[in-house]
Amino acid sequence: MTIGLTVALLVFLVGLLCSIPLAWLFMGAPLFGSLLDSSNYAFISGTFYHALNSSTVMAIAFFVYAGSLISDAGLADRIVRFSHALVGRMRGGMEVVGIVAAVFLGALTGSSIPVISALIPLLVPRLKKYGYEPKYTTSVLCSSSFLGYLIPPSVPALIYCLMAQQSVSALFLSTVIPGLILALGYGILNYFICPQYIRPELITEEIAEAPLDFFSRAKELGAASWVAIPALGCPALILAGIYGGLCTPNEAGAIAVVYCMFIGFCVYRELTLKKFWSATMSSLLSLGVIAILIGGGTVLARYLIRVGAAQAVAGFMLGMFSSKTMILLAMNVFFLILGMFMEATPMMILGVPLILPLMTDLGVNPVHLGAIIIVNVGLGVVTPPFAMSIFVGSRLSGCSYGELVPIMLKFLFFVGIPVLLLTTYVPALSCWLPTLLLGPQIVGVW
After folding, report:
1. 320: Cβ–Cβ under 8 A, 6 or more apart, which residues?
2. How many CA atoms lie within 13 A of 223 on its CB side?
3. Are 184 and 212 in contact (CB under 8 A)?
């Protein structure tokens, strides 16, 4: 290890401890390292530019913008009503409403924070009237919020494709089955544990609902589905456009933005000019942060590759573990630890370039690897101590951090980690669907 690399890593780690913004660390660490090694640092500006000069970054921008518009355009309310009509009357069904709504909203926004921001104010007060403790409802919604990373379109999938130069269509499909298994697992766990979080004294008599007969339930579901069709049409339009060969992912993102504006202004009529301006500014700020992180993270990744750090990590892992099974397990532990302290975007930007050469040497399919990493990144969003979903959920619901963590750990250990291991060691979960729809020439051998 050269003195430049040593200083670069120290600058990065000390900067993290001192809460210096990651974008500065991503670019400052390689600059210090290059200066001390007397190597050419002109690559920094060119790398930063080329990292952002990509149609995938354009797709990220459009999907972030569409997600912001959805939060203010009335789509969330209709999706919650549809979810309630679909699953709201089973045991623990009101919590399953939140899980199902998170799946649909995740498919619309491709991110976790808009899901939490839309659903917690909507569901926590209402479910409290049904007897559910606010801390439990908040925990379920926070635990489910990252399902948007797994249901296309997915911003982390786009970032992985940008870093690993893989097919966006294949990556979108690779996480669908793991995402649905996670949602199902959350629903099953909720079925067994929800009674201990229901307090009868919270139930208000005037909203107690009697069981409906089959025809009444069918009528309720039909009415809710009819109202929700415009909202559910957005992901259907995106997926049909991409997989029907009608448009590229970035064109699909642009179509999604126009569609959400049309639905918000003309159909539901809840998207005012004030809300539109707020969503636009919020999207610009989010995109600015993502762009700086992508550009700076790519600079750091290229520096680490130039000085041989990625190859050293690969050699270290291959020397420490004798089997592919243990190396994959170590990779999962590495990403889970990163997730305890980093948000999704910097975790991917830092981790993917380091781990990609090792996985290539092991012969891991890059589409399969993308699915593993995206599930890891999703779990990182809900893994304490640094979990953005917990902080946002706590602020919106009024529940303390300490109240949410024990419940969320149940969903993490009983559902999240088992699904991660399934995704890791059963490649068919992530490769079967893209192979079926796109062909083996896109996905490769698995």
Report:
1. 330
2. 9
3. no
Report angle CA 74, 80, 84 to the nearest 5 degrees.
150
Q: How far apart are CA 329 and CA 364, in angstroms?
A: 13
CA angle 241, 158, 382 (to 5 degrees): 115
- Name the helix (H) or strand (E) containing 339: helix 324-339
Beta bridge partners of 132: 198
Return the C-alpha torsion angle 289, 294, 300, 306, nearest 10: -170
**41 burial class (0-12, 13-18, 19+ CB within 10 angstroms)?**
middle
| Mean pLDDT across the chain | 82
At 193-215, the pLDDT tens digits run 988 988 877 766 444 444 556 67
The proportion of the chain whose per-residue pLDDT surpasses 90, expressed as a percent, equals 17
Q: Is the pTM of this model over 0.70?
A: yes
Residues 6 or more apart whose Cβ sits within 8 Å of residue 427: 365, 368, 446
| String of DSSP letters for 134-191 | HHHHHHHHHHHGGGGGTSSS-HHHHHHHHHHT--HHHHHHHTHHHHHHHHHHHHHHHH
Which residues have CB under 8 Å from 239's CB, separation 6+?
152, 172
Question: What digits encode the pLDDT tens for the residues 282-326?
Answer: 888 878 877 887 788 778 877 877 877 766 766 776 677 778 898
Q: Classify residue 227 by its DSSP letter.
A: H
Residue 358 banded pLDDT, cuts 50, 70, 90: confident
SS (H, E, C) 13-24: HHHHHCCCCHHH
